[in-house]
Write a structure and sequence with these properties.
With about 150 residues, the protein is α+β, with helices and mostly antiparallel strands. The chain has helices at about 1-10, 20-35, 40-50, 55-65, 100-110, 115-145, and strands spanning about 15-20, 75-85, 90-95. Helices cover about 65% and strands about 15% of the residues. A three-stranded antiparallel β-sheet has the order 1-3-2. Helix 1 (about 1-10) packs across helix 4 and helix 3 packs across helix 4.
């Protein structure tokens, strides 16, 4: 079961499962991803003995190993979603950290504390800069037209 779940995680980059299965899968998959960082024949054979899927091995040793090459560990993330309606089991996402676009965009847009005092000053300071940039762009276009 863990091998099949790991293959799905490698191929789809994110799967939905129960929290208990996700915690077991995290240990299993992170060990294999660590092996994949060292692209040797032996490490490929060891990982293939666990997974038995050529496409998953290609994906693991290709794009995944390149993205996690400098990361010392923690290749997966578990995000809890709530409880399943049928049996009230706690469900979650387990995903590869470097392949989640939504989380990486949010991390890049980390908001800062805003103050009402500084907003008027900041707006006033930015307006002339934008006007100067527009004037420089017009001058550059005029110079290009003269050169032609």
């Amino acid at each position: 079961m863990l091998a099949n779940m790991t293959i799905s995680l490698i191929m789809h980059k994110r799967i939905t499962t129960t929290v208990a299965k996700a915690k077991a899968l995290k240990k299993y998959a992170e060990h294999l991803i660590t092996k994949a960082k060292d692209d040797t024949t032996n490490s490929r054979r060891v990982v293939f003995s666990y997974l038995q899927n050529k496409e998953a091995i290609k994906e693991l040793f290709g794009p995944i190993a390149q993205k996690v090459g400098d990361r010392p560990g923690g290749y997966t993330r578990i995000i809890k979603l709530g409880f399943r309606q049928g049996d009230a089991a706690q469900i979650c996402f387990i995903e590869l950290v470097d392949f989640d676009e939504a989380m990486s965009k949010n991390a890049a847009k980390k908001s800062t504390r805003r103050s009402r005092r500084g907003a008027k000053k900041a707006d006033a300071a930015e307006a002339p800069v934008e006007e100067v940039k527009a004037e420089e762009a017009q001058e550059a276009k005029a110079e290009e037209a003269k050169a032609e």
